[in-house]
Amino acid sequence: MIKLHNLDIRTVTLALSLRDCIDTDVNAVCEKIYSKITKYAKNLVAYADELENDYSIPIINKRISVTPISLIGEACSSPDYVKIAETLDKAGEEVGVNFIGGYSALVEKGCTRGDKLLIESIPEALSKTERLCSSINLATSKAGINMDAVLKMAEIIKQTAEYTKDRDSIGAAKLVCFCNSASDNPFMAGAYCGFGEPECALNVGVSGPGVVRAAIEQLPKNADLTEVAATIKQIAYKITSTGELVGRKLAKRLDIPFGVIDLSLAPTPAEGDSVAGIFQAMGLEHAGAHGTTAALAMLNDAVKKGGIMASSHVGGLSGAFIPVSEDAGMIEAAAKGYLTFDKLEAMTSVCSVGIDMVAIPGDTPSSTIAGIIADEMAIGMINKKTTAVRIIPAIGKGVGDKIHFGGLLGEAPIMPVNSLSSLVFVNRGGRIPAPIHSLNN
Question: What is the Cα–Cα distance from 421 to 418, expressed in whole angstroms?
Fold first, then answer.
């Protein structure tokens, strides 16, 4: 499973509260942040590497998530969020992690002074850092959708893409908008350490779409979908057990609590490590064919049912990811026109996240991006699930071109978006009220 089908631990993420780093002096805040991160995470990479060798299971990423930074900088008499961003990045470099998440704000019902300042700083912050990731929660099933913030974030996404246009607008690949964000999510770009989390904990994200595909391909061609689902559950149990073992061993060595295991099937651009490949193993010609949404729904459900039996502490997003640039099969389907933007949106109603790592023309109006975000927030709000938008307006590029990031972020063809205007609708602002089922106390 490890050598042939890319089974791995996708990430071990150290979640760290920075609430005790609050100060009126931004320089003092930065000193406290740097000191705390380097203290708690100094052995994270070394111990993870040791476990990787002990168990021969690859641990692809080592990451850190912190308290939403809008809160940490808000008490400063002269807030400088970019300075805090650079401090986070420097601390991440010092301890050797791949990414650090939590440059975040939760604004589903409105923005405080700190929220506004952090949001305004995102383009500069992401252009001046290498490891930093940012997320903004714009909606919940309880609060509705903050459309003022949706429109603002559409503009921020465009600006972030512009600031990093010399690198295929990579800044936008490290920025995500959420509905119902998870406070214990170990995956980037949306990881942060939520208010109810402990001082420090280790959260683990597993992977293994290649393993799932191989198991389905070994079934008889006439195996019915109940048998397919049962097979996925069995494999999910094994994958989760592996992640649980490594996560608990690493937490013990770090002398911190084990947090949660996220059951998400996270693909990579590597051949055979594709969620889209699972659809083909099930019998669809390719991702995007009619039946893809049903196949994804079954996959997501079976992964959760199998994984929940292997761990008592499941959290994060948990299910199947469908990032276009990070999945070789999704890249191919999008490039050949099999996978359209509208089909992707339909699939997000049953997957773990949403419109993820999708490249669009750089001249797409911010009002159209706001409409895309609003649609995705609505799916999450109504269905009481996490949804997200991580979209990359590729500055200077159009349909037919590609963006290239390399590594886990991969590459993606520029996909066309609907040319009809959303301008008047999104500019109305205000809040879309929460649905009636939110009144469940």
Answer: 8
Helix (H) or strand (E) holding 288: none
**Could you give all domains of the chain from N- to C-terminal order, each with its CATH number?**
13-179 (3.20.70.20), 204-433 (3.20.70.20)
Q: How many CB atoms lie within 10 A of CB 270?
A: 14
Q: What is the rounded distance in angstroms from the CA atom of residue 56 to the CA atom of residue 64?
A: 23
Cα distance between residue 33 and residue 80, in whole Å: 14
Q: What is the pLDDT of residues 101-135, one digit of tens each?
A: 999 999 999 999 999 999 999 999 999 999 999 99
- Reported as type and span, the H/E element at residue 129 is none
Rounded CA separation 82/1 (Å): 43
The residues pairing with 177 across neighbouring beta strands, listed in sequence order, are 136, 389
DSSP conformation letters of 205-241 = EE--HHHHHHHHHTS-TT--HHHHHHHHHHHHHHHHH
200-206/144-146 β-pairing? unpaired
With 0.85 as the threshold, say if the pTM is over it: yes
